[in-house]
């Protein structure tokens, strides 16, 4: 005779004490607010361990609001009240203040309880401590920001890279076109850099690139000015709202700062120290002008400077 199978159907339980025990044994903090009086009719004892405030101190929604960080308070209260008035279940993340003055990230999950006629009877919900999750999210965001910065930064010289220039140049071009202000570019090439590498070696060549980049970056020190490495031994200065005279002043300042470094270059054809050649130009972009055509024009001026003997600035067509 086969043995009877056990009855696995759930057993109904009408003892409210059981439910309370279950609720109070979780990490989540249950609570209930009477809608008419806006007073707490229950909050789990776990609240004291988390925030330091005793359950008996949670009398009304004012106590809840007062214990929200002031930077989050108004937005959180306005949102929760509006959603509750609409009878919409919702959740809110905010920083709660502990009795000791610290703060804990809370996720409040709210359910609106309605009467048979549809009117709001009460709000019930759970508070969850999400501090560790928020800290992890903040760390991830910080790392993402750091990676984004690094992705726009030349790893060797520390100045902006070609990607940064290619991203910002079209933006500054459109701004200049819209505002009618001039935009200047200076393209820079280290003179006889191949000979420098052949003579001093690539390690010293990398140091030369770093020192030149520092001089160019220091020379283009305005809040909107950008120094970027285009690749190899070539750099560019992007100078928004800068006319031709001001652009030449910036270029001359960069050359002066480089001369002051007195970097030896025994194989240079322009002297005994490292020098640079520069092509410069200024434009107020019109509707028919093209950003890449203008950049190509500045490149040609750079090669005119090199053809004319190097260690100079060419800012006009020849």
TrEMBL record:
<feature type="domain" description="GGDEF">
    <location>
        <begin position="181"/>
        <end position="318"/>
    </location>
</feature>
<dbReference type="InterPro" id="IPR000700">
    <property type="entry name" value="PAS-assoc_C"/>
</dbReference>
<dbReference type="InterPro" id="IPR000014">
    <property type="entry name" value="PAS"/>
</dbReference>
<dbReference type="InterPro" id="IPR001610">
    <property type="entry name" value="PAC"/>
</dbReference>
<dbReference type="Pfam" id="PF00990">
    <property type="entry name" value="GGDEF"/>
</dbReference>
<dbReference type="GO" id="GO:1902201">
    <property type="term" value="P:negative regulation of bacterial-type flagellum-dependent cell motility"/>
</dbReference>
<dbReference type="GO" id="GO:0005886">
    <property type="term" value="C:plasma membrane"/>
</dbReference>
<dbReference type="InterPro" id="IPR050469">
    <property type="entry name" value="Diguanylate_Cyclase"/>
</dbReference>
<dbReference type="InterPro" id="IPR043128">
    <property type="entry name" value="Rev_trsase/Diguanyl_cyclase"/>
</dbReference>
<dbReference type="GO" id="GO:0043709">
    <property type="term" value="P:cell adhesion involved in single-species biofilm formation"/>
</dbReference>
<dbReference type="InterPro" id="IPR029787">
    <property type="entry name" value="Nucleotide_cyclase"/>
</dbReference>
<dbReference type="Pfam" id="PF08447">
    <property type="entry name" value="PAS_3"/>
</dbReference>
<feature type="domain" description="PAS">
    <location>
        <begin position="15"/>
        <end position="74"/>
    </location>
</feature>
<feature type="domain" description="PAC">
    <location>
        <begin position="90"/>
        <end position="142"/>
    </location>
</feature>
<dbReference type="InterPro" id="IPR035965">
    <property type="entry name" value="PAS-like_dom_sf"/>
</dbReference>
<dbReference type="InterPro" id="IPR000160">
    <property type="entry name" value="GGDEF_dom"/>
</dbReference>
<dbReference type="GO" id="GO:0052621">
    <property type="term" value="F:diguanylate cyclase activity"/>
</dbReference>
<dbReference type="InterPro" id="IPR013655">
    <property type="entry name" value="PAS_fold_3"/>
</dbReference>
<protein>
    <recommendedName>
        <fullName>diguanylate cyclase</fullName>
        <ecNumber>2.7.7.65</ecNumber>
    </recommendedName>
</protein>
